[in-house]
From TrEMBL:
It is found in: Membrane. Its main location: membrane. It is a multi-pass membrane protein. One of its GO terms (cellular component) is membrane. This is Major facilitator superfamily (MFS) profile domain-containing protein. PANTHER family: FI21844P1-RELATED (PTHR11662:SF280), SOLUTE CARRIER FAMILY 17 (PTHR11662). Gene3D superfamilies: MFS general substrate transporter like domains. Pfam families: MFS_1. Keywords: Membrane, Transmembrane, Transmembrane helix. Residues 1-432 form the Major facilitator superfamily (MFS) profile domain. GO terms for molecular function: transmembrane transporter activity. The chain crosses the membrane at residues 50-72, 115-137, 143-162, 200-221, 251-269, 281-300, 306-328, 340-360, 408-429. The keyword Transmembrane applies.
């Protein structure tokens, strides 16, 4: 869509959108943060299956429509699609958390939660090389959107046929499996249970989760949105090799999540660690090890490609620790309101998903980074300028962009590392693995008297 390669006349390209790239990247989050708290409440009151179905189908539809809106309305059309996609995906995490509170018994909670949420980086692993290969082929970038849109629609069909809100509503679950799942979970109707907003926002363990979530999102989304640019502009990898290398850290993230989460559950089951200590230790691994890797990147020259890629893999891969840390901690402290808690923390923390790419833009502006590869012609259209011609035209342009861009990326990595360290320390101090008192509600017994009951 926005390419540095000479345009193929049969495939539309929009080089004039280059300056708007990070606005497009961040526009997804404008919609993403807007409905999550509301989505958590809806999932608690009416069950998550319906909302997951509608949200994923609508998101998939607008994914397939991106090329059409881009050609019809320009960059504004793409931004509109991204906002709608974000609004739809805003229902995802709160609904999934609500599902986990019904389907994941305590002894398997970390493993099941990590297996579910680690599917996101696994999707990156699969999508990045496929996207790069299709975009570089004669099929062109529009096929990428058609393919992923169709896949999402197919998923909704499978989900409608096989999914359910809870074990009690599943059509084919065995009695033994149902008994195992529900053994230490209380399956109450949560629709009439009020949400204790004041207690939530005055809860220290909740704030520990929120702060950790904010820190993780800043670093994760900085790397996810900017690694391809770093690979190309600093390390000099072209689109085909770039897509494979960009996906490597997320493959390691997925693999490590499959190692760390069963290990966490095993340590809890053996009573080697309490639930709270386990969450703190693995969350610290998930934030502090990446922070150290990002700090190390500052001192590695851009010519040391192997070392740079290794550190990027560490920075992203060890983020898997958060899947066994704060990411499932909402269910630990309040299984009843876990979807709402996830909606709150994921909504507020993804504001950093908006700020991260925009901050990179700000760093670029301050450092005067970037050489335009496209310029406006007198007719008002845009013309592609080969790099060698641009170099001839601007004799002052640097011969090796990687040397001029490295200081910019040092700032990007340094900021992410500091945020990881601070938020990781906050979580280590304030987190808890104990169900909070406000997860118990006050109701009337048969005699009309007030009583507290666990839910």
């Amino acid at each position: 869509m926005i390419t540095d390669d000479p345009p193929d006349e049969s495939i539309p390209t929009y080089p004039e959108w280059t300056s708007e790239k990070n606005i497009m990247l961040s526009s997804f989050f404008w919609g993403y943060v807007s409905l999550q708290i509301f989505a958590g409440q809806l999932a608690k009151n009416y069950g998550p299956k319906l909302f997951l179905t509608v949200a994923i189908f609508t998101c998939s539809l607008f994914t397939a429509l991106v090329p059409f809106f881009g050609s019809w309305l320009g960059s504004g059309g793409v931004i509109a699609c991204r906002v709608i996609q974000g609004m739809c995906q805003g229902f995802l995490f709160p609904s999934v958390h609500n599902l986990l509170s019904f389907w994941a018994p305590l002894i398997d909670r970390t493993t099941i939660g990590s297996f579910v949420y680690a599917a996101a980086p696994l999707g990156n692993v699969i999508a990045m090389p496929i996207t790069g290969a299709i975009a570089a082929s004669t099929a062109g970038w529009p096929v990428v959107f058609y393919l992923y849109g169709a896949m999402g629609m197919c998923w909704t069909v499978v989900w409608v046929l096989t999914g359910s809100d809870s074990p009690s509503k599943h059509k084919s679950i065995s009695p033994e499996e149902k008994k195992y799942i529900e053994a230490d979970l209380v399956m109450e109707d949560r629709k009439t249970i009020p949400t204790p907003w004041t207690s939530i926002f005055t809860s220290w363990p909740f704030w520990a989760i929120l702060i950790a979530h904010c820190g993780q999102n800043w670093g994760f989304w900085t790397l996810l949105t900017e690694i391809p640019s770093y690979m190309e502009n600093v390390l000099g990898f072209k689109i085909a090799s770039n897509s494979y290398l960009s996906s490597l850290p997320y493959f390691v993230l997925w693999l490590l999540s499959l190692v760390m989460s069963p290990l966490a559950d095993w340590l809890i089951a053996r009573q080697t660690l309490t639930l709270g200590k386990s969450r703190k230790i693995f969350n610290t691994i998930g934030l502090w090890v990446p922070a150290l890797a990002l700090i190390s990147l500052i001192f590695v020259e851009s010519t040391q490609k192997t070392a740079t890629i290794f550190l990027l893999v560490i920075a992203v891969g060890f983020n898997a620790g958060v899947f066994s840390g704060f990411n499932v901690n909402h269910i630990d402290i309040s299984p009843t309101h876990s979807g709402t808690l996830m909606g709150i923390t994921n909504s507020l923390s993804n504001i950093f998903g908006i700020l991260a790419p925009l901050a990179v833009d700000a760093f670029k502006s301050m450092s005067g980074y970037g050489e335009e590869k496209y310029r406006s012609c007198s007719s008002g259209s845009w013309k592609w300028i080969p790099p060698n011609a641009l170099q001839d035209e601007r004799s002052t342009a640097p011969a090796n962009p990687s040397t001029t861009e490295k200081p910019l990326w040092n700032i990007v990595f340094g900021v992410a590392a500091v945020i990881y360290l601070i938020t990781g320390a906050f979580y280590m101090y304030g987190a808890s693995g104990v169900i909070q008192s406000w997860d118990h509600v006050v109701s009337d017994d048969e005699n009309g008297k007030k009583k507290k009951q666990p839910v």
